[in-house]
Amino acid sequence: MKIKMKTLYVGLGMTFLLLGCDKNEVGDISLGVFTTQDIKLNTLVDPLVTGVTCHVASIEADLSLSDPSDSSIACRQTGEISTAMIAAIDKSKSGEVVFKKSKSIFFKSMKIRRVFDAQSQTLMYVSYSTKETSGSFKHSLSTVPLWGTAAYNKSTTPEL
């Protein structure tokens, strides 16, 4: 019986350790000795436009019931962007969610949405929280222009 209990405790401990690991995490900055909050740095490759990589910085609290909603995002072209990739994306005004992460047990999540601005030939990536915090919904924006890529369509840009 004692061996089964030890095995159970070890299994639970390993599960909690693995839950804290994120394969996309590239940095972890402690905010101090007397806090459980850290700044987590994650890298995300757009699943459809694989030539775009986004880096997201967000506050996470390991032993807390909720995480702060603050996050920032920076996206850059890190590879080829083709016309086929742009043809495959949602071009509606609301775009599409390309990443979602739970931020608390109270149904708060952080989402990253891609929106295509056809007129300026630019991909916009907005990171936002799904719950209001301190009177506002926290959000951050980054853009990736298609200028200079195979996907750039000169016929849709206005003449100056």
Sheet-strand content, in percent, reads 35-45%
User: What percent of the residues sit in helical stretches (DSSP H or I)?
Assistant: 10-25%
Distance between the termini: 79 Å
Helix and strand succession? HEEEEHEEEE
Largest sheet: 4 strands, antiparallel
Low-confidence runs of at least 5 consecutive residues: 5-21
Number of continuous helical runs? 2
Beta-strand segment tally: 8
Strand order of the largest sheet: 1-2-3-4
Instruction: Determine the mean pLDDT.
Output: 80
Shape: elongated
Broad structural category:
alpha+beta
User: How many domain regions?
Assistant: 1
Q: Radius of gyration, rounded? A: 20 Å
Could you describe the 3D structure shown?
This protein is an alpha+beta fold and 160 residues long. The protein has one domain (24-156). It is built from 2 helices and 8 strands. It has helices at residues 2-20, 83-88, and strands at 25-30, 37-45, 52-61, 71-77, 96-102, 109-117, 122-129, 139-145. The strands form 2 sheets. Strands 1-2-3-4 form a 4-stranded antiparallel sheet, with no helix packed on it. Residues 5-21 have low confidence and may be disordered.
